[in-house]
Design brief:
The protein is 64% helix and 4% strand. Helix 3 packs antiparallel against helix 4 and helix 6 runs antiparallel to helix 11. With 332 residues, the protein is mainly alpha-helical.
Length: 332
């Protein structure tokens, strides 16, 4: 029958809601995530501001959100719960529920950490200059997230640390407190960098990818070849050839290179301009925000997306070493 077998859930007598092929196809997964994302966006736009208008809810919801994110980050490190992907444990899959999709808890942690810091530092009674009431809790929250994420995903850990530090700076924390955090963060990220040999190999490949063009230098070399193949106007949308096995992770981390191949330098510049427009809209949202919590939340989310886009484009153009950071709103 077109609906396939019965659900894989133990003891289930119900058929899956959608055909199995739809769950496993790229189009099906993206359509599912698009539908869920649009639904959440519409609901949040309707009830978000009234719900967060209460000081009690502004404290409880971000704390609950942050607690769930930390629990999922820890679950991604537990053997048997996480699904290994390219040798790292970043994903939680829902296959046991009869749904062949998964997600990275680090994506949830980005939003949760920004919301938590905005709640902690954005209340009227909060004093960002206080060491014990503001700086220490914020540092502990940042440290927990960066440590859990950085064990398997160094690039996202750097992104979280930079975004969180920017929020503390904008909130008005003391400069010597921030310098203390920078020192602790640099030490922690250095430990994470040397904890995995492949990270050092990527760093060496960034310095000279011609030294190992078939190994650690293969991906940055192919990325530059892909971009150069597009010229000014590209080969045409869908006409690129590098994505057919030549450029690894061409649909996620290196999708910008494929876009430059097919739409040329013009298409790449257009994408950068769209991200600049996104930043301008974020700044406008900050200017019309009614409370300090809303301003910090708008700044944190805008800075997070902009910094991640900048990091991804810098990696694709080999301006920085290779990291597993996707391009927001475009990857996959």
């Amino acid at each position: 029958r077109p609906w396939g077998r019965w659900s894989s859930w133990p003891g289930s007598r119900y058929r899956p809601l959608l055909p199995p092929r739809l769950w496993t196809s790229p189009f099906g997964r993206q359509a599912l995530f698009t539908f869920i994302g649009l639904a959440i966006m519409l609901v949040t736009a309707r009830v978000g501001i009234p719900l967060l208008g209460s000081p009690a809810m502004r404290n409880r919801l971000p704390q609950l959100f942050f607690g769930v994110a930390v629990a999922l980050l820890a679950a991604a490190l537990v053997p048997g719960l996480a699904a290994p992907h390219h040798g790292s444990h970043r994903w939680l899959h829902l296959g046991r529920l009869g749904v062949g999709v998964g997600f990275q808890p680090s994506e949830l942690a980005k939003l949760a950490l920004v919301a938590f810091l905005a709640s902690l530092l954005g209340e009227r009674s909060a004093d960002p200059k206080s060491f014990g009431r503001s700086f220490v809790p914020a540092t502990l929250a940042i440290g927990v997230c960066v440590a859990l994420v950085g064990k398997e995903n160094f690039g996202t850990a750097v992104l979280l640390a930079c975004a969180a530090g920017a929020i503390l700076f904008v909130a008005g924390c003391r400069i010597h407190h921030l310098l203390m955090m920078v020192g602790l963060g640099a030490a922690g990220l250095t430990v994470l960098l040397f904890a995995a040999p492949y990270r050092l190999a990527r760093l060496a490949a960034y310095r000279d990818f011609w030294a190992d063009p078939q190994g650690a230098g293969y991906q940055p070399l192919q990325s530059l070849v892909t971009i150069a193949s597009g010229g000014w106007w590209g080969t045409g949308l869908g006409s690129g050839v590098q994505k057919y096995g030549y450029l690894p992770e061409s649909h996620t981390d290196f999708v910008f290179a494929v876009l430059c191949e097919e739409l040329g330098a013009f298409g790449g510049a257009l994408v950068i301009l769209l991200f600049c427009a996104f930043v301008c809209l974020g700044i406008r949202t900050m200017l019309v925000a009614r409370t300090r919590f809303e301003r910090l939340l708008a700044f944190g989310l805008t800075f997070l997306v902009a910094l991640q886009a900048a990091m991804n484009i810098a990696v694709v153009t080999v301006m920085t070493p290779t990291t597993g950071v996707p391009l927001p709103l475009l990857s996959a």
